[in-house]
């Protein structure tokens, strides 16, 4: 099967040092967000090469790869899905990939898997749509990865100077308990500030005193030293 070939290709690229390090880096211990995840030990550029070499596999094969126990196999599946989405121009073809992606979010189960795919599939699909209700449904989900997908997807809008949804989602998830969400929101707010500083400043002026500190730090990274000092001091 093609999937067995892909996994063999990935396994041939295994780095013993990475294989030992990744379980700690991606928090796979008991009770941690990546609990029980397994790693082959491959760097992202090498996974991308395998994905590009196998980008024409079928949806059924992608699903099998996405259900694989190894993190890098799931990443490869998502990279292939992103490549296929970029090639599709017809609305029905793009929607099919979008729907497939959202039906498998339980397998997009770590922050790096979300970050390399959500903006390029969910974000790009919704970028020209008026109805983005699905983002708020994801934000309401009990699954951390759904919530992060909702936030990271807005990167595609931010690039187009469309800030409405990241501001709404940031306010909706402002008091989220998980630092992975604090980082994601802070990152998207920082990107917002790079496109339109006044939008970021408006958000900070309203919320900086109650924002989680990690979220605040991420959001102000590109501000001047004086501005950073001001917002950190006001905490």
From TrEMBL:
<protein>
    <submittedName>
        <fullName>DNA alkylation repair protein</fullName>
    </submittedName>
</protein>
<dbReference type="Pfam" id="PF08713">
    <property type="entry name" value="DNA_alkylation"/>
</dbReference>
<dbReference type="InterPro" id="IPR014825">
    <property type="entry name" value="DNA_alkylation"/>
</dbReference>
<dbReference type="InterPro" id="IPR016024">
    <property type="entry name" value="ARM-type_fold"/>
</dbReference>
